[in-house]
Design brief:
Blueprint lengths: L11 E4 L6 H9 L4 E2 L6 H9 L10 H12 L12 H7 L5 H15 L4 E5 L7 H7 L4 E6 L2 H10 L7 H22 L4 E5 H6 L1 H12 L21 H7 L11 H4 L2 H17 L13 H22 L1 H17 L1
Parallel strand pairs: 1-3, 1-4, 2-3, 4-5
Length: 330
């Protein structure tokens, strides 16, 4: 038995590219009376590379305490409510190593919410699936997929992520390939793919499907996620959307907003992936010349990326924090 009555139900992870609706799904799952999913943790993409080979086995001692203290100081964790205490996390650790710290952190937070099962959602963690599976071999994964052209549009308006259609297409394909590799390793019993558009069209049906997969009872309160008094510090557009019921019309916006050239570029790179997930192509035999690809990558993209970086004040904070962590944990 875990702290405050929490049981050892297998954890679950929400995978998917950023801007695919993972925040919406997270809010829905976190509304369930038994499941708790906090704000993004960024533990495996930010912390694990720093400590994997530099802090030993993280047994009881100074290294473990330092790691827990630094995790709790991060911008991401400061948004968790309630924030677990360092002492509570250290007392809950049952196994050595980084995964033991992660497990104790989530179990402690979940117990403080009066729930018994935890989930995790950080889009970057889709790319870290082999490491996560190593630490949690009994995990389950819910993979959320959204039409990559709408993902590209959403990234364009966000303060982070790719700003050119060429980079957005490669980004989307990269995340799909990582998720597909995880699906092949885990099998259907532990990996479920859900399309964002299907979640919008039939939220209750898809949530029932997810609950069946996770072996949890469906609860209608999941559809009232927007009534939760939960701090979710995403960008302003995302926060506004999460405070409203399901936006049924929030799909295929790319049709009126991507130029013919942008559609051709995206489908040249990601056309096969679109088809695999049931998204129709609009360009017959799309192609790009080598010179156009080079132009997209080295001429058109850099100024857009630079402008986005200059406007992304939150990104400055994360960059400085990453530098501090690298120095501190080394």
């Amino acid at each position: 038995m875990l702290p405050n009555g929490t049981n050892s139900s297998s954890p679950f992870f929400v995978f998917g590219s950023g801007r695919s609706g993972t925040s919406l799904l997270t809010r829905m799952l976190d509304s369930h009376p038994s499941m708790a999913v906090p704000y993004e943790s960024h533990l495996y993409n930010r912390f694990y590379p720093l400590v994997a080979q530099r802090m030993g086995e993280l047994g009881p001692g100074a290294n473990r305490k330092l790691l827990v203290r630094e995790i709790l100081r991060t911008r991401a964790l400061r948004h968790w409510r309630p924030l677990p205490s360092e002492d509570a996390i250290l007392a809950a650790i049952r196994r050595p190593g980084f995964h033991g710290v992660v497990e104790a952190l989530f179990e402690t937070w979940t117990a403080s919410r009066g729930k018994r099962r935890w989930g995790e959602k950080t889009p970057h963690h889709t790319l870290c699936w082999p490491t996560i599976l190593e630490g949690f071999p009994d995990l389950k994964v819910v993979h959320l997929v959204r039409d990559g052209r709408d993902v590209a549009l959403s990234f364009r308006a966000a303060p982070f992520g790719p700003k050119h259609i060429y980079q957005a297409a490669h980004h989307w394909v990269r995340y799909l390939r990582a998720a597909e590799a995880a699906a092949e390793e885990l099998g259907a019993e532990a990996f479920l793919t859900v399309r964002y558009e299907d979640l919008l069209r039939d939220a209750e049906g898809q949530l029932r499907r997810i609950c069946d997969f996770l072996e949890e009872d469906y609860d209608p309160v999941m559809l009232a996620y927007y009534r939760q008094d939960v701090l979710y510090p995403s960008d302003a557009r995302n926060v506004h959307a999460l405070r409203r019921p399901v936006l049924y019309e929030n799909h295929t916006k790319w049709r009126g907003r991507l130029s013919t050239r942008e559609q051709r570029i995206f489908e040249t790179i990601a056309g096969e992936a679109l088809e695999r997930y049931g998204y129709p192509r609009t360009v017959n035999r799309p192609r790009m010349a080598d010179w156009e690809a080079l132009c997209c990558r080295y001429v058109e993209n850099p100024p857009r990326r630079l402008l986005a970086m200059l406007r992304n004040r939150e990104g400055y904070g994360f960059a400085l924090e990453s530098l501090r962590l690298a120095v501190k944990l080394r």
